[in-house]
Every structure is written in C-alpha cells, then in structure tokens.
C-alpha cells in the first residue's frame, strides 16, 4: 500500500526544526496516526505543537547563555536601550525591535565565519597581548553609534521643531561621510594589528 | 525531595500503567483521548513524558521501526517503581481530599 503523503509545509517545518534523532519517536508517532486516517488539519495542529514545544525546550536550555549575553556582554546595549526609551519615547518602539533584531542576527552569526576576505591580512602568529585602540571602531560599533545618534537626534527634533531645517544638510553630510569611509576602506586593506581590538605579538 | 505531579502528568503516567507493555506516543495519546473525550497534542504528551523521565518516574527504550512510521522507531515507556509509588501516594491524597465532601455527592453540585 502506498504511504499517505503528509502536507508539505508542516512536513518541511518538522524537517527544519526537529531534524535531530531525539525527535524520531514523536515524528514517527505523528506519521503513524496520519497514516491511520487523521486529517491534514490535525497534522498541521500536531506539527505546530511539536515545533513550539521543541523551540520552548531549546530556549529554556539556552536561557542561561542568553541571559549571560544580554546582561553581561550586552549590558551596555541594554543600558543604552533604556536610555533611548526614556529619551525618544514612541520612537523607541522602532529602535528596540531593531536592536533586538541586530542582536539576534549577531547571536545566530556566532561561530566560524569561513576564510578571510582577500583584502584582510591574517593575524600575526606567536605569543600575543590584547590591545584596544578606540579610534578604530568596527562597522558594527559604528552602526550601533549611528542608531543611537539617530534616536537622540529624533528626540531633540521633537523637543525643538525649528531644528528640522538641519535634517537635510545632516543627512547629506552623513551620506558624504559614508561614501568617504567606503572609498577609504576600498583603498586601504584592513590590518588586524590596527583594529580597535587586536592580538599583537609580544 | 518527593517530586510532584501535575494533572496532565498524572494522566500520562496513569495511561502508561493502564496500557502496559505497548505504551508509546500513539497508544498513550489514544488512551487519554478515549478517557477524556478531547483531543490531545503529541507535543504536550512528549513534554510531559520528558519531564516524567527526568524526574525518574518513567523509563523508556527504543522499539522497532515500521514503514507506516516512515522508518522511525517507537519509544516505549514504562512506570518505574518510584513512579508507581508516587502515583499510589497521589491517589491516597486525592481520596482523602475527596472523602466527606457533600457538595460532590449530588448532581446539582
């Protein structure tokens, strides 16, 4: 007898979220009951419950790591976020989800990132010391600072509407500055020894 | 410390005891559905099974894989002596709480 094919979208969700061998039993149970005549709607509901419970378990399992990152590594981000909330009022409704999105993308992007691009020099070998040079802020840091400045400027413009005339020259000068940075980056290969935080031989 | 059982966990462990040897996800969900008359989500059942196993109240082992399950193995569950003891204690506590309640004797309660 030919096996009944389950709905493709929930089957894809199961494949994506519950790929490990620890989910074999529950997916097998789901398939068995579907094979015995359950409706596609039933399959959808059961899949949703399995995926939600899997994600909840993973979140609980990773809660210490998430809270550690949020309150120690990204404690400054949290403080800035609270400050922005107080300063910008309703605009924080946009800024906070944007900050959370950036943090999530950074979190997901952790781990090996593959070979270095062509214009990046490899880090020096041998015993090393850490060096911080605040004048060489990375693009991520620049983006964060830009968002903060935008929030503060928006708050300022709400308080002082006459300053709105400065918006256009401000935007134009910002764009010119970004173009200058882009040109500088393309002309000057990045040297990890001069990064804002880098490893230097003793 | 003696672990406690939620209402749903108690239902799941009772279903495992009632089914006996062939207690796995499908048979447990059917047993609960037939008893309560409502639909049960497999995700909730597996959540409860994971909690019960972590408390040492049930144990599991992998069974055979069949074609109707897409080649996936069944996980069979059984109550451990600790689980059986806790169910018995829970039953005694509940019977004590139930006894002597005039409100629950008549249909109009």
Please provide a brief summary of the model.
Chain A is mostly helical and 202 residues long.
What overall form of chain B do the CA principal axes indicate?
globular
* Biggest beta sheet attributes of chain A: 2 strands, antiparallel
Helical content class of chain B: 40-55%
Query: Helix-strand pattern of chain A, N to C?
Result: HHHHHEHHE
Counting helices, strands and paired strands, the structural category of chain A is mainly alpha
Count of distinct strands of chain A? 2
| Approximate strand percentage of chain A | under 5%
Taking the sheet with the most strands of chain B, its summary is: 2 strands, antiparallel
What distance separates the N and C termini of chain B? 36 Å
- Order of strands in the sheet with the most strands of chain B? 1-2
Stretches with pLDDT under 50, minimum 5 residues of chain B:
none
As a whole number of angstroms, the C-alpha radius of gyration of chain A is 25 Å
Oligomer: heterodimer
Output the helix-strand order of chain B: HHHEEH
Give the averaged pLDDT of chain B, no decimals.
Answer: 88
Broad structural category of chain B: alpha+beta
Structure in words:
The complex is a heterodimer of chains A (202) and B (109). In chain A, 64% of the residues lie in helices and 5% in strands. With 202 residues, chain A is mainly alpha-helical. Chain A has a two-stranded antiparallel ribbon. In chain B, β1 and β2 form a beta hairpin. The chains are: A mainly alpha (202), B alpha+beta (109). Chains A and B meet through α2 and α3 of A and α2, α3, β1 and β2 of B.
């Amino acid at each position: 007898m030919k096996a009944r094919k389950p709905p493709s979208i929930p089957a894809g969700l199961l494949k994506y979220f519950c790929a490990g061998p620890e989910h074999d039993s529950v997916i097998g149970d789901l398939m068995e009951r579907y094979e015995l005549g359950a409706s596609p709607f039933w399959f959808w509901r059961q899949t949703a419950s399995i995926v939600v419970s899997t994600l909840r378990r993973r979140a609980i399992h990773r809660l210490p790591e998430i809270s550690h990152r949020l309150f120690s590594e990204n404690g400054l981000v949290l403080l800035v976020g609270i400050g922005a909330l107080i300063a910008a009022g309703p605009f924080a409704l946009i800024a906070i989800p944007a900050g959370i999105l950036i943090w999530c993308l950074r979190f997901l992007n952790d781990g090996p990132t593959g070979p270095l691009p062509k214009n990046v020099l490899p880090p020096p070998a041998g015993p090393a010391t850490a060096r911080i040079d605040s004048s060489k802020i990375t693009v991520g840091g620049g983006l964060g600072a830009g968002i903060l400045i935008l929030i503060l400027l928006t708050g300022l413009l709400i308080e002082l509407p006459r300053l709105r005339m400065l918006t256009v020259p401000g935007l134009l000068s910002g764009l010119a500055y970004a173009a200058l940075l882009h040109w500088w980056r393309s002309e000057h290969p990045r040297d990890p020894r001069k990064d804002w935080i880098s490893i230097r031989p003793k | 410390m003696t672990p406690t059982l939620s209402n749903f966990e108690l239902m799941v462990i009772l279903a495992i005891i009632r089914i006996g040897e062939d207690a796995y996800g499908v048979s447990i969900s059917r047993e609960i559905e037939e008893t309560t008359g409502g639909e049960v989500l497999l995700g909730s059942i597996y959540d409860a099974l994971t909690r019960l196993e972590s408390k040492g109240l049930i144990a599991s082992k992998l069974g055979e894989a069949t074609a109707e399950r897409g080649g996936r193995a069944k996980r069979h569950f059984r109550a451990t002596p600790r689980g059986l003891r806790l169910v018995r204690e829970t039953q005694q506590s509940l019977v004590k709480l139930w006894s002597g309640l005039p409100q629950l004797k008549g249909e109009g309660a």
